[in-house]
């Protein structure tokens, strides 16, 4: 039985070129890292959720994810205030590898500027940007 | 997310072969390292003067690819970082735990070999290696002559810095095999040849003659025994014989803190041996697990803990330095031993979540040389040089982790005591000397 999920880029998400995804739900967005990002990082061993209320700026770093081999900056695909964080990842950071679009979500934000959505890619464009 | 390039991983996934400790010494039980100097291009492995350029391919590369291994460029070779996980999304942790609990199989064919032979072979090695080469006896038993002792050493510069750390095996009365770190191999060959001038000794770059497999873990010997047509050598001994029908130099060494063997075989036969070991239950493991295993065992890694800028005394390797043998660098090593090093290598454990990686500064002086999440302890651990006055276990440290202070505590080495410490010990005389040597170093 496969222990890690196969590559996937769900069509209901928007993607930032630095391998982050956003799921738009009304005026809020849930954020996380893509299958490609978690695969490149390798198994995640440490993640410290950012504080509630933190203001994210599109394209700027808002968190760090540490894998066995490296620490990686996480970039915000959209601007906004953090309204929820995935506390469960502090105990089980491996969920980022196991389920990057589900249990591995990182934060939820109140979207500050819906116009920023135009700068993101759809699944097809993002997958194409990975070079196959 | 900024995804690190695969080559970046090489910095934190070093590798190596092994030695053994001075049993009771406070220092590392084993030591052996392997890593390129940070920043040193892989091409630096090639030396115009001497060593054969590495092919960049171990004879097992196609097997690693077929098994789905994630590969990294390491010291000019494509090496497996890890294999696909079997039970979780954490392949490195799975491989690490497999080695601690049972047995893992590593391809370490990137490591180098130098054969030293001739009437003056022992003289040359005594001149270059920090340990006492004259102690290396032949024969697994007196009744059965043949390859004998294995010995861990550092290779020092005239200034007393560490050029490499390596294991020497005595193959015959006037014949030795030295296993080098991949990234240091070419310069080691040059160094050996430069010091061989005027001596009746042949220094041969034997890298192309060998593939090297490491079978490590508490069950390694049990797994190997039905395949081996020889009595397996004790810890820090070597023996020749057939394993799965393949002629091998079997060495009681490793770089994991666990019992086990390293197998040196002809490259064209490495595949058959690998397949036989895997068929008998050995789990392939990659360089990432090797790095966390050696770190838990507090075995130093060349390029991290060991560099030309650090004394072996500061690194806790005084037990393998016998200045009375007058090896190159001995006066400088003795001076540091007598005066006491300004900094010492310590093991630390973070008192809060996180990982303090190599390069992190220690408040009040010093820096982290290796850091990782310990799969066995579930905590951030590492090795760091700190001022000698702050090197005692129990000392509180504060480490700057990318701008944030993290509390840590100096702890006893090693973090994890593996099955290698249960193996046969050196003679009483060796042990006493090692302890005395280490006490001198610590005083």
Describe this structure in words.
Chain A is globular. By secondary structure, chain A is of the alpha+beta class. Chain A has helices spanning 35-41, 88-91, 95-98, 123-129; strands at 14-16, 20-25, 28-33, 44-47, 55-56, 61-67, 71-75, 80-85, 107-111. In chain A, a hairpin with a 3-residue loop joins strand 1 (14-16) and strand 2. Chain A contains 4 helices and 9 strands, in the order E-E-E-H-E-E-E-E-E-H-H-E-H. In chain A, strands 1-2-3-9-8-5 form a 6-stranded antiparallel sheet. Chain A has a 3-stranded antiparallel sheet with strand order 4-6-7. Chain B has 443 residues and is α+β, with helices and mostly antiparallel strands. Chain B contains 10 helices and 19 strands. In chain B, strands 10-11-12-9-3-13 form a 6-stranded mixed sheet. Chain B has a 6-stranded antiparallel sheet with strand order 15-18-19-14-17-16, covered by helices on one side. Chain B has a 5-stranded antiparallel sheet with strand order 5-6-7-4-8, covered by helices on one side. In chain B, helix 3 (91-101) crosses helix 8 (287-296). Chain B is globular and about 55 Å long. Residues 5-51 and 423-443 of chain B have low confidence and may be disordered. The A-B interface holds A 3-4, 18-20, 33-34, 36-37, 40-43, 45-46, 48, 64-66, 68-75, 90, 94, 97-98 and B 1-4, 8-9, 12-13, 70, 81-82, 84-93, 288, 292, 353-355, 357, 372-373, 380, 402.
